[in-house]
Amino acid sequence: MAALYGEVSWFCCGNSWGPCGTVGKGACGTCNSGSRQHAWPNTSAACLTITRPDRCGETLARRTCGHVHTTTNRCTGKAIATSIADCGPQTDLFCGERTCCGSVCGSNRVIDLTPSAYSAIGSLSTGLLPAMIT
Amino acid sequence: MPTTIAALAPLLIGGVLLWSGSLKLFGRHAAAEARRTALAGLVGEARVVPAYRILGGLELLIAVALIAPPPLWIDLAAGAALSAGFIAYLGYAALAAPASSCGCMGSRPSRISWRAFARAGTMLLASAAALLWAPSIAWYTELSGEPVLFTAVLAAEALLVAGLSPEFDHRWLLPLRRLHNRLTHPLSGGGFEIPLDSTVTQLIRSGVYRHTAAALRSDVTEHWDEGEWRFLVYSARYENRPATAVYAVPRLRYAPDDVRVAMVDEEEGTTLLTMDTPPPEDSRPEWVLTNPLPEHVRTA
Amino acid sequence: MDRRKLLTSAVLGGAAGLVGATALGSLSPEDVFAAEGANAKINPGDPDPNFVEGRITGITDTVLFVTSSDGSLHSIRVTNGTSIWKLNPTTFDEVKVGDGLYARGLRLADGTLAADSLWVNIVNLNAHVDSIGRGSLNLDHHGQRVVAHVENGRSAAVYNNTPAVSDMSMLEAGKHVKVIGAWHPDTNEITISTVYAAV
């Protein structure tokens, strides 16, 4: 797949503590905050009707549970390979949002990593990073 | 009065069912809304859209039977059964899939709350009242008899149903809340302190950060203010040894180009690197795209 | 204080000699080298050995004992180079039993995680603003009500592409927000660190 540019964020899943406790194991039934996994906005037709990346002009390929993407933090070049475990993020809620790092910017939330995956390429306290996804 | 209230129940219930049935059958986002409901758990993912549409058709059928003459008790019984069934469905959904949409009336998703139960309960009560007190009185006869009272009661009931419908909140509750916030400013008065996150976002937008962030190993370990600067300290690894990265960021102005950094080996007591302007970007569109990745870039 | 002075002069010019601060100790380069080698290859989808999620069940001088959501037990070693986030960067004595945490570091040979970063009670919620009260937002998070408190001087807002500011007055009821915040353990309340909103 050609490289996709956008914003990466993180989300918790599995039976974790706090408000995360109600989120569950995700659309694939395998999601855990401690595993190298991610959520993808087009895991199924039903998923796409919720996330609607098309409303932000993003055309994302259909990729199902277990598919591996590599997300590169464009601030640092740190990269991580993760597998799909959930549907998300809801891209259309923040169409046009931009996150920058120096002169490098990413627009639209196109991928959500688990805390374990996100913290390998950035700080959880930042919440959003410009990213390249392959 | 009780007879009037009871007699207009078919019109009220019919109107609500006409609205919700049309949206389920003909709504532009009906298929998407169907998938968000808890119906999927009952009938399966593959059958959820047809089931949702069949339910819409049933609602329309009962709506027409309730509104059109002649008035029959069986129509009211069907309305009551539908309301009771809906309460049972809401109970199931609240337990089995609390995050799902109610799938009630609008094209907008609305979560299952006490209001959904109260609305379905109102429908059930109205059907039961009509069955008890006015099973064969036509609403149009009542309307011609007492038009003002009838219209007033119907309007009040319609307002009650709308008030219990989260699908209509954006029409009245939200504007009211926004107006209230505009008048009272509940989040104002924040003082003049600069939150640390403001400084961190400024740092991240600086070229100096982008050229040194690959060496960082931690989040902010320490920070302090001095004059016009705010200092942010990170643990780092530079030239294969532990280091401390100290960034100086303008505190009271937004000037990412003024950010500077020093990498310090605290054990040895030496400064390994200082940078107050980032190296110029080279002509390549994206340095992280180079293959293989540069040596200093750590691949997780 | 001296250390800060020295670090300040290092970054602003005129660096003097520096002396290491070792209140919590540090890792030897050999430890780091051995751990990095052992953890080089982790498959996508697998649990990450260099990461711990869970709740703190015990604390000693420099070690946190954590029970993960899957029931596994972990010990996390904190050094003077470890960053500790709890709404803001903070110190080890602010970490309490009962707090939730995410920790990233290096898994040492004895099974201990030598932490680079700890994020205590951190949450990242995508939620709908139901209403705004005095100094707080009432959020709908997957159907659950969450009260998000604003702490003056600490909470920041990012509107679209703007830098983070302390002004929260542009937040509106009925809109979606993303909130990085600190959870108040065993409640449905959080304190906002950064709220991202589209305006």
UniProtKB/TrEMBL annotation, chain B:
GO terms for biological process: methylamine metabolic process. It comes from the Bacteria. One of its GO terms (cellular component) is membrane. The chain crosses the membrane at residues 6-27, 48-67, 73-95, 116-136. It is a multi-pass membrane protein. This is Methylamine utilisation protein MauE domain-containing protein. The keyword Transmembrane helix applies. The keyword Transcription regulation does not apply. InterPro entries: Methylamine_util_MauE (IPR009908). It comes from Phytomonospora endophytica. Keywords: Membrane, Transmembrane, Transmembrane helix. Residues 5-132 form the Methylamine utilisation protein MauE domain. Pfam families: MauE. It is found in: Membrane. The lineage of its organism: Bacteria, Bacillati, Actinomycetota, Actinomycetes, Micromonosporales.
From TrEMBL, chain C:
This is Cell wall protein. It comes from Phytomonospora endophytica. It comes from the Bacteria. The lineage of its organism: Bacteria, Bacillati, Actinomycetota, Actinomycetes, Micromonosporales.
